[in-house]
Amino acid sequence: MEPFTRYTAIAAPFDQANVDTDQIMPARFMRRPRDERYATYGFHDQRYTPEGAKRPDFILNQPPFDAAGILVAGRNFGVGSSREAAVYALLAMGHRCVVAPSFGDIFFSNALKNGLLPVRLPESTVNALRQAVATSPGTTLSVDLERQELTGPDGTAHQFAIPGFARECLLRGLDEIGLTLTLAPDIAAFEARRDAAR
Amino acid sequence: MGRTLFQKIWDQHVVQARDDGLALLYVDRHYFHEGSFHAFNMLRARGLPVRRPDLTFGFGDHYAPTTARRTADVADPEIRGIIETFEANARAHRIRAFELADPDQGIVHVAGPEQGLTLPGMTVVCGDSHTSTHGALGALAFGIGASEVAHVLATQTIWQTPPKQIRCAFEGTLPEGSTAKDMALALIAQIGTGGGLGGAIEFAGSAVRALSVEARLTLCNMAIEAGARTGMVAPDATTAAWLAGRPHAPAQPDPAWEALFTDADATFDSAVTLDAATIRPMATWGTSPEEAVPLSGRIPRAEEAPDEARQKAWARSLDYMGLQGGEAMADVRLDRVFLGSCTNARIEDLRAAAAVLRGRRIAVPMLVSPGSSRVKRAAEAEGLDRVFREAGARWEESACALCVSMHGETVGEGERCASTSNRNFAGRQGRGARTHLVSPASAAASALAGRLVSAA
């Protein structure tokens, strides 16, 4: 995984609550291997008409938001299905960060493991940020994972929380499986204790 | 200080704990399905073996057709390829997989418990959000993503942050005609799809104790729709009796199961209590499981929503669903009905629907897909297949089927379907499909009426 340290990008206002992962990645595309086509699967049925034309009223089809790297979303972003393909689709579309008042648990975890930074901030803060990027299209936001800060267009830095282990892995671009495999002796000892107790 | 059921199981599985609360938990049971191919690819890319193939079990369900039982008979080459990959991955890693043609095949959250593979006190994971279902047996069970599936395959462990602990009690007696599905929908309507976010729900109270194991499986299945990572019910004599004689269950109940309950002095982060006696047959009207009302009620108008965010959400849902708001639920006309899924396709579910249909004819097309091939045979032994067929329904094979519509069949654009599944998300059953979640008895009654109604 590529390390995630600091990131600045155009932010798009994504004003929908309870965006489920079925919306982000429709089930019928999930049989496909992970490749560049995932960029067209993301939000597919909201982005395209049944005939395949781009819907002009969909926010991520409108310049400059079609070049957004950060989504400022609503509450419960990424609820529902555990499909990690939803994260693959967002990454393929060019997003590296989603800001929301709350996230679906499994989505949050999937995002962290793939270098898509989920930033949880109070709902009033998120609403104000969404408003700001909506009224001044092209506004950028900056996120600093080392400092755990997201900086808004007015220069205010908002602190966010993130699990320590995931933060370390993201900052250093480390592979969680590799780290856990260094604990193989502890895992084997645990198995031995359990087998002895049976 | 006392501990909750959740804490007791958690504590027994900690391999390593970090200062920040994160723990490496040992996984007792790992299930996978055809959709887990990304994880096997990750393993292959690293050249890693599966650490414990003996604790890992595969079930072919997500892409399984309802009309064929041989992989070679799957018409769509892309879907057939996914199923073949699932079978090849299992063979390559010497994992027992319940493939399409296996007499014990079924939906992982129906067939796993049915096989006795999920037991009280276990940690259970699967790359599927409805893994919460298994908590009904007193297990700590939760859904994970593909990267985590790869991690479990390679290490038999998973890193977890302790969730908030939520006690959800249903007290009193559930009225005749109301079911565990209605309890789940009533709960989610009350606390919202974000109500359980970051949490583990323990279902308790007299109405939960009175539920059969199958009904508890339905309730825990829907915990994820309340946003919770998992749902669980303390094991009791009902649990032990249900597990007795299952292929992979011990011959005698494990005495350790008796310690699996929440201590009287244990504390929860939050608690909610519902009066079971007030729960009526429910249905969703929108595109989120929280958008649910009693079938005897009417659909709300967007302007009646309690806050601005929900006013927008409700307006969007009503628009997608082709509804105005204000209509009586019973006036909503259906195009089709689906009885199936890991939520509601166990033998009790099929009996409840068949009891409503017996000797009558349905008004709109209905598909019945049993939760497992065993459930299918049990239903046929009781003659339920004849009841469904004589009523005019399609009686087909076990699969996730129209719950997730990955197997090739979909609900059409603009079509309205009453479904016993768990998600009414936009496009879930097919692009532009409109889904109303209901119980099996309500699904059957709605199929007869061609409208959204309850059986009572």
Automatic annotation (TrEMBL), chain A:
Q: Which reaction does it catalyse?
A: (2R,3S)-3-isopropylmalate = (2S)-2-isopropylmalate
Q: Which UniProt keywords apply?
A: Amino-acid biosynthesis, Branched-chain amino acid biosynthesis, Leucine biosynthesis, Lyase
Q: Listed GO molecular functions?
A: 3-isopropylmalate dehydratase activity
Name all Aconitase A/isopropylmalate dehydratase small subunit swivel domain ranges. Answer: 1-123
Signal peptide range:
none
Top enzyme category: lyase
The record's annotation in Pfam families points to: Aconitase_C
- Amino-acid biosynthesis as a keyword of this entry, yes or no, is yes
Q: In which pathway does it act?
A: Amino-acid biosynthesis; L-leucine biosynthesis; L-leucine from 3-methyl-2-oxobutanoate: step 2/4
Does this UniProt record's set of keywords contain Transmembrane? no
Give EC number(s), comma-separated: 4.2.1.33
InterPro entries named in the record: 3-IsopropMal_deHydase_ssu (IPR004431), Aconitase/3IPM_dehydase_swvl (IPR015928), AconitaseA/IPMdHydase_ssu_swvl (IPR000573), IPMI_Swivel (IPR033940), LeuD (IPR050075)
User: Assembly and interactions?
Assistant: Heterodimer of LeuC and LeuD.
HAMAP family on file: LeuD_type1 (MF_01031)
Biological function: Catalyzes the isomerization between 2-isopropylmalate and 3-isopropylmalate, via the formation of 2-isopropylmaleate.
State the family named in the UniProt similarity comment for this chain.
Belongs to the LeuD family. LeuD type 1 subfamily.
This one is known as: 3-isopropylmalate dehydratase small subunit
Q: What lineage does UniProt assign to this protein's organism? A: Bacteria, Pseudomonadati, Pseudomonadota, Alphaproteobacteria, Acetobacterales
Which gene is the coding source of this polypeptide chain? leuD
UniProtKB/TrEMBL annotation, chain B:
Q: Which cofactors does this protein require?
A: [4Fe-4S] cluster
Any Pfam family hit: Aconitase
Q: In which pathway does it act?
A: Amino-acid biosynthesis; L-leucine biosynthesis; L-leucine from 3-methyl-2-oxobutanoate: step 2/4
Write down the chemical reaction(s) this protein catalyses: (2R,3S)-3-isopropylmalate = (2S)-2-isopropylmalate
- UniProt KW Hydrolase keyword: no
MF-aspect GO terms: 3-isopropylmalate dehydratase activity
InterPro entries, alphabetized = 3-IsopropMal_deHydase_lsu (IPR004430), Acnase/IPM_dHydase_lsu_aba_1/3 (IPR015931), Acoase/IPM_deHydtase_lsu_aba (IPR001030), Aconitase_4Fe-4S_BS (IPR018136), Aconitase_4Fe-4S_dom (IPR036008), IPM_dehydratase_rel_enz (IPR050067)
Keyword list (alphabetical) reads:
4Fe-4S, Amino-acid biosynthesis, Branched-chain amino acid biosynthesis, Iron, Iron-sulfur, Leucine biosynthesis, Lyase, Metal-binding
Ranges for domain Aconitase/3-isopropylmalate dehydratase large subunit alpha/beta/alpha: 7-450
EC number from the UniProt entry = 4.2.1.33
> Subunit structure, per the record?
Heterodimer of LeuC and LeuD.
Q: Which NCBIfam families does this one have?
A: leuC, PRK05478.1, PRK12466.1
Q: What does this protein do?
A: Catalyzes the isomerization between 2-isopropylmalate and 3-isopropylmalate, via the formation of 2-isopropylmaleate.
Supply the name of the protein: 3-isopropylmalate dehydratase
Originating gene: leuC
